[in-house]
From TrEMBL, chain B:
Origin species: Actinophytocola xanthii
Domain of life: Bacteria
Protein name: Sugar ABC transporter substrate-binding protein
Pfam families: SBP_bac_1
Amino acid sequence: MRHNPSTHRTVTSGERDANQPQVRDQAALSRPKPANRKKFGEAGQRQLVLVVLVVAAVVTLFPFLLVAMNAVKSPAEYAARGPLGLPDGLYLDGIANFWERVDFGLKLANSTVIAGSVAVLAVAVSVLTAYALGIGRIRGRLWIVAIFLLANLMPQEALVYPLYYLAKQVGLYDTQLAVIIIFTAIQSAFGTYLLTSVLATFPREIIEAAKIDGASRWQVLWRVVVPISWPTLSVLLVFFFIWTWNEFFIPMIMLVSNDTQTVPVALGVLQGQRLMDATAQSASALLGILPAVVFFLIFQRTLTRGIAVGAIK
Amino acid sequence: MFKPGRIGVALVTSATLLTACGSEDAGGDDELVLWHYESPDSAMGIAWNEAIEEFERTHEGVTVRFEEKGFEQIQKNAQMVLNSDEAPDIMEYNKGNATAGLLSKQGLLTDMSAEASERGWDDMLSPSLQTTCKYDERGVMGGEKWVGVPNYAEYAMVYYNKDLFARHGVAVPTTLDQLTSAMDTFVDKGVTPLAVGGKEYPAQQLFYQLVLSKADSGWINDFHRYTGDVDFHDEAWTYGAETFADWVDRGYLSKDATGIDAEGMGLSFMAGDYPMMISGSWWYGRLKNEIKAFEWDSFLFPSDFTLGSSGNLWVVPENSPNKELAYDFIDITMKKANQDLLGNSGGVPVAADTEAISDEKNRTLIDNYQTLVERDGLAYYPDWPVPGYYDVLVSATQKLINGTASPEEVLDELAAPYEENLANVGS
């Protein structure tokens, strides 16, 4: 929806203008009763916070609402009244046509497989490397972490040609495995950097105690470090999933055939050379973000549970 | 209690399983792999779909595996894909030096010269269309080697809102003077006459159209095929830049146009906000389907030359194992039946038969195209000669609209990258 950033801005500032006079009116109403001033002052503050939060929520949700609204508009309605006009009724053909046109179910499965495997593998790799760097404290760990961070800062455009040649040499060009390997490396570079600093502050007493009890290195990692750092790991897992889900450039380069492609690449089909079909694009954008939102909502609960468990311990 | 182990193992196993069955190899000689990036309800989409069916009817035992691609994917990927085993047998690709020309220079596209004369494609395509099909060894268009074959064409025209013209008592102009006086009438009545988008291609196309009104075919060849010196302060360029700035001053186009993209321009015209829009035939089908509130029509910009060219090309990758089948497919899209279907669906067929076009609007589109072809008046697009010129032109025309640079300065800005590129052509 990058074609109308200016409309976002005007409308949201309009919302703010519409809301603020109300606040002032209410503040004025509370003034004549000095006895309750303190109470009313608190109430007024609360209301102000509420209004600010509502405005912020509207601002955040506005693009999403706009996409949802245009997704259920017919192209003729869009042409006649533009992106901000209200739809006459639900027009679901755009969504249905897009689903069929790109075989969206298959793309969903592809994206889930790729993002899911990358999330799990990258977290696993990050845990192993960070265990060595953060708890094992091997020599030169600062430099190693710095190099990982550098690798993470490399623009993907610079990586594409080497990756393309490597993938072609080993026969992985146009396979999802290639994308999984690439993103496991990219994400675990960040994961290693983050987890290393988290594990560096890990209480040594617990590890010492486990060692005294006769735990091997592997057991310390698997029975002690991983369960205690699970909240961090699960946050990483969710982030890796969503980041990989949203990746466009490398999947577009590596996944040539339509039946291996991911959701963001499939959305690109609608952007033509000179024309774009705005309603179909909204429909596709809606379909494209929904899975990530659903995934986030599901894991939101396990996340908080994970953090709570860690806190009680 | 959490069990990271089980979840992890389950996910990885399912991933590996799915990955294993996900990839497939390119087909053998009983399959034609075809890629294009036209939407299924566009004229090309409709006609090519029919061509696929006819191909399967006439080639028993051969199936067509069609994959719809995104424009961006092909633009960014083509070179890498064509250099691998995953190359399709036939695909749509952009014409021009920086695209088809470049791939041809790298030896990734098949030379179809023999097929073109044998199957008579060369007779069906007018000289200015052939220019974009044939490239020389530097990858510059207008060469000897047939690299691609287009089955449709495109050109720029003036779309106008008949209702607004009638309401303000304006007649359809046939000369440039009539056009400017028509626009004066609109301005006097407080209506901005031209819908223009300065953020994307529309503004530069209008600018180039104004330049073209003082250009001749030698000038166009010099600019696009590097056959002679290009002076950015010659009569044509100066006239184009000064007139464009003048049109902004007179209010023919809005100063706000700098922030409007092509989609915004089209929407405002479709909403009936502007009487005229100067843009390409790629809008035609969409306007026809989506404008319900008023009557509209189109006329050619009053100038010998106008923007336009062949459509995108069918190219056959050098790595294609089924070249003969690919040629057969191209041949089907060039046949009368498919050309007529393309025309009837709102496209511009390269070898049009106006008699066979039933819809009146579509016939106007094709009639105007025939007029252009007869005077060989297709003059391509201004961003073609230099890679990355598109953005230079966007910025230059935005400056003209804002008035932050004089026409002279803007022309200097255009000259620099052109001359820089000229030194590198063919190297």
